[in-house]
Specification:
alpha/beta; 8-stranded mixed beta sheet; Arc Repressor Mutant, subunit A; 10 strands
């Protein structure tokens, strides 16, 4: 099989001639002379080293090899047409692709996107939910950005990302949160020791290093580790799931306040104890340096930093 790219003009002449079974009709469709079509076919036959057409009683017929290859040639040209259409569609409607952790997307970013769309109605967005980190493997992540068409990412980490433009959005802290119903009832939450009567909800997405910010750490800080078993309870692989369990009154969650901001403001969640533990990690906006100056990326970056500043002020 030839390893070099075949002559596309000759392949196009072959596809039309094979479909019409007429060099004359093919010439009319391609707006060339029948002699030009014949010349292209001969060039392709020479390239392939085999005949593609036979004339029988003045009728043009495909050889078995041509019959076998024609469907793939037609499929290839159809793919080329589709690719060009996608190029044109992208040019008409710019798409900004943002990779973000699922819980941050659901709880913080998506509820705010309408404000960006109102200011930039000409920019369409694609939100790609991903738990991938950037820390310590920037070269591999740059390859992932190119492969998946990602323009920007919001990541939870330490902010050391060589090869990326990095903007810190906001620092985070963890603290207990629960449904307001748990402040009443048979065992109301009045002091940290009261947690022994309630289910502990564990947000396992916080487990990013050896200094795991978990219930054991919080209870130790609150000086009640001996009274409450930090290992019991339910575990969740996404923050949004842990927060939803807390919303349903299933227990007390230890998680990031920023991600629960809307539920706290609406009174769906409350903070039974004000003790919070700041984390070494923060949320960062990261973008490959090579594309950081593109206008639509700059527009989203400026808007997101303003949103983050408002969040910090609150």
């Amino acid at each position: 099989m030839p390893s070099s790219l075949p002559p596309l003009n000759a392949l196009r002449a072959f596809e039309v001639a094979a479909r019409c079974l007429s060099f004359k009709q093919a010439a009319e469709e391609l707006h060339v002379t029948p002699a030009a079509v014949s010349q292209q076919i001969k060039a392709l036959e020479h390239y392939l080293g085999l005949p593609l057409f036979r004339r029988t009683n003045r009728v043009l017929r495909l050889t078995p090899a041509a019959q076998a290859g024609l469907p793939k040639v037609q499929e290839g040209f159809a793919c080329l047409v589709e690719a060009v259409e996608q190029f044109q569609e992208r040019a008409k409607s710019p798409i900004l692709t943002i990779s973000v952790a699922p819980s941050l997307a659901a709880k913080w970013l998506v509820p705010r996107l309408h404000r960006f769309a109102a200011v930039h109605p000409d920019i369409d967005m694609r939100i790609s939910a991903s738990m991938a980190l950037v820390d310590g493997r920037s070269r591999a992540v740059l390859a992932d950005f190119r492969r998946d068409g990602i323009d920007l990412a919001i990541r939870f980490g330490r902010g050391k990302y060589p090869g990326f433009q990095v903007d810190k959005l906001f620092s985070v802290a963890i603290l207990p949160m629960c449904s307001p119903g748990l402040l009443e009832g048979e065992h109301p939450l009045r002091k940290p020791e009261d947690l022994r009567h309630h289910v502990l909800l564990h947000d396992d997405t916080l487990s990013l290093d050896d200094r795991k910010p978990d219930w054991n750490m919080w209870l130790k800080t609150a000086s009640v580790r001996q009274q409450v078993d930090a290992n019991r309870g339910q575990h969740f692989s996404h923050t949004a799931l842990a927060l939803n369990a807390a919303l349903e009154g299933q227990g007390v969650v230890l998680s990031i306040k920023t991600l629960a901001a809307a539920d706290l403001a609406a009174g769906r969640l409350v903070i039974p104890f004000a003790l919070s533990i700041p984390l070494d990690f923060a949320y960062y906006l990261v973008c490959p340096e090579a594309i950081a100056e593109q206008p639509m990326i700059g527009a989203f970056r400026a808007w997101l930093l303003q949103e983050a500043q408002s969040e910090t002020a609150n």
